[in-house]
Structures are given as C-alpha cells and as structure tokens.
Amino acid sequence: MNFIINLNEKINSFVWGPFTLSLFLFVGIFFTLRLKGIQIIKVKSITNKTLLSLFKKQTRTSTDRHCLSQLGSLSTALAATIGTGSIVGVATALTIGGSGSIFWMWVSAFLGMGTAYAENVLGILYRTRDKNGRITGGAHFYIEKGMKAKPLAKLFALFCVLASFGMGNMAQGNSISASLFQSFHIPRIYCGIVLFAFVLIVMLGGAKRTQNVCELIVPFMTVFFLAGAVIILILKRERLIPEFLSIFKNAFTFKSAAGGIAGAGIKKAFSVGIRRGVFSNEAGLGSTVGVHSSSNIREPVEQGFWGIFEVFIDTMIVCTITALVILVSGVPLISDQGAEIVVKAFESGFGSLGGYFVSISIVLFALATLIGWSFIGENAFCYLFPRAKNRVYKILFCIFVYLGAVSSLEFVWEISDTFNGLMAIPNLIALIVLSKEVVGETNRYFSKNNSA
Q1: For the chain, which residues make up each domain, given as ranges?
Q2: CATH second-level architecture of 2-446?
Q3: Could you tell me the pTM of the whole model?
Q4: In sequence order, what are the residues at sequence separation of 6 or more whose Cβ sits closer than 8 angstroms to the Cβ of residue 184?
Q5: pLDDT tens per residue across span 229-264
Q6: Is 269 within 8 Å of 100 (Cβ atoms)?
Q7: In angstroms, rounded to a whole number, what is the distance separating the alpha carbons of residues 392 and 371?
Q8: 128 phi and psi, to 5 degrees?
Q9: Whole-angstrom Cα distance, residue 182 to residue 231?
Q10: CA angle 8–13–18, rounded 5-degree value
Q11: pLDDT per residue over 76-124, tens digit each?
C-alpha cells in the first residue's frame, strides 16, 4: 500500500506540476488569441444564445428523445463541475495562497472559457449516434477521429472511468455522509443505503432522467447557496469593498503567512489560484464534453457558447461569492480547515444555523456531482466496452457510492486527483492539434450569421 501511495505522489507531482499547469495556461491563451478574445468580443452573442435563451421553450425541451435539451446538458455539466470544490476548495485556496489566489482563479477561468469553447465545438463536430440511436460524444471521440489516435482516446476514457469512481463518486458520497453525520447525526450506513438506491433509480432511468434530476437540483442548490451567501455579504457590507480590492492587491504583493519574500508569496498565490480554477470549472480536462455533445443543438459554435457560460457560472459567480463570504467574515485562514472555515464564515452571520446551512449546501453540491459524473463515467465506459451492458457500470457505480459513504477516503481523493490530471494531458494535446477546425468553424458561423 505504501508503494502505491508513494507512486501516486510521484505521478501526481508531475501531472499537476509546472508542465501541466503551463499547458493549461498555454492552451487557454492560445485559443483566446486565435479566437480573438471571443469570450469578450462576442459577449452579446454568447448571452443571447445562453442566458437569454433559457426563457425559450426549445432551450428547455428536446424533440429528439435521444438528445438532451440545451438546459439539460448545461445542468448536467454544471452538476459535475459545481461540486464541493466550489465551497471547500475555495477556502483551501485562500488558506494556501491568500486572497490574491482568487485573482489568479479568475485568470484561469477567463482563459478556461476559450478552452471550454474549443472542447465543445469539437465535441459537436465529432459526436455520433450509437447502435441504439442515442447521440454520444466526448473528448475521446475527437481524440480518436480527429487526431487518429485511438489508443490515446482509449487511455483518456479509462482515466475518465477511474475518475468517475473516485472523485466523481466515492469522494462525493463520503462528503454527503460526513456532512449529514456531523450536523444531523445520521449514521453513515443509512446514508450509504439511501444514496445507493437514489443513484441507481436515477441511472436506470437513462439520460433523460439524469437530465431531469439535474435540472431540479442544480438551479435549486445554486440559488439556495448564493442567496445565503448574499445575505452574509449584506450583513458584512462594510468589509466588502476593502476585501474585494485586497484580491487585486494581494495577487501581486501577497506575502506568505510565515513572512517570506513577496516573490514567493506571489508565486504561491498564482500557482494555487490557477490550479483551483482548473479544479473548479474543469476546462481542459475534457470531462464534461460528453454531456455537452448530447445536446440537441446543431451548431458547434453555439454549444461552445454554453461551455463559456458554464465556466462563468462556476468560477466567476459561485467561487467568487464563496471567497468574498469567507473574506468579509474575518475568520482566521488556517490550513487544513477548509470546511471549518466555510462553516465559521456562515456562522458569523447566521449563528449556529450557519453549520446546518453549509452542510445542506455540501450535500446538494456533492449529490449533483454524483449524478453528473454518473453520466460522464457511463459515457466513457460505453466507449471502452461497446459490447458490454451499460447496466454493469451503473451497478458498479452505485456500489462505489455506498463504499464511499461508509469509508475513510483520504487516499481516494489523492488518487482521483491524479486521474483527473491524466485525463487533461491527451485532451489538451488534441485541442492544439485540432485548433484549425475550431477556428474554421468559428469563422464559418460568424460569416454566415453576419451575412444573414
């Protein structure tokens, strides 16, 4: 066991080391420049085709029973990305890198919008229908068909399946059972049984049921959490502007808690902010491409817009507001106390109810991540084993949910982190190789619409 732990530490240090983080930044900068800052110059088109389109019936429903609606694909993708990392992960970033890390998280998200756009454009271009007529796609499809690198695509799908059992499954089940036990004293075994049954019922209902559940959970949990956070910000409004400005100031002048030189502090804030930004919105991992590829939308560029919108909601809205709540609360930023810091931040405004509020939020966010990743993992499993019954994966997934709820999972978090990083490398390489197609499709779309 020690051998596996040591091996994972070595792989993880490389996977999430300077090379991969630099690759994430390079790809984000690359597409931002090649697409001429699409996330800024085309903000009107993006808003019209995403946020404003939510009020249109065709966005919320799909006439093709083999496709998800645009709202359904967004909700399922957000379910997988807006997880406990958007709450606890932000607190961890602040304890390590200070408030300046949030600035670099924004930078990561801004560049990640270009990456997410490219992923989703390629996802639509290379999606296909399976033997049952269901629309299916994902990063593994454009790695295989676009790059002509089937072994690399298989490897990506394998890492995706493994990540779905770890970070997308056991880790989330553990977060749910731990929160319910701590706040409501519900035994972990009961949580495990209920989670097993609930997730199995959702998965056996297929993509449509997954979509329907995500459409219920994601908007509710987001509004619930943000409403509570906004109340805290109003109660602590005298600290809001100073703490917001500290994000910019400390991004370049932050000193480590031990009084180290400013340069080292800036480096730490930069590194933590970029990494946590990637963890939060998953732009570049290729994980949610399969969900977006199942949308009923036909225009690749318009699905790319949804990728930009997803990153914006996850990092620029949810993570930012979480960070501001922690900062204005004035709670000490003690390392290894991510969840406790968030609880104390909300208790500063809600009193003892703050702990219950955070626990409910974590349960909802983790549950959404479970459902979202069940779709992602099943999609990759069916690609790896096209002749196998997908029911095999569904039952296995639910068994691992139960195990996660009743077990101690420190090592699961660490090894799942490694699998996430291993997914990113082939995906980022594919994005660079296929960048001409992304640019060409973008130019075609805007030329057609400008001339219309």
Answers
A1: 2-446
A2: Up-down Bundle (1.20)
A3: 0.89
A4: 359
A5: 999 999 999 999 999 998 888 877 644 333 333 444
A6: yes
A7: 17
A8: -150, 180
A9: 24
A10: 155
A11: 888 877 777 778 778 877 887 788 888 888 888 898 899 999 999 999 9
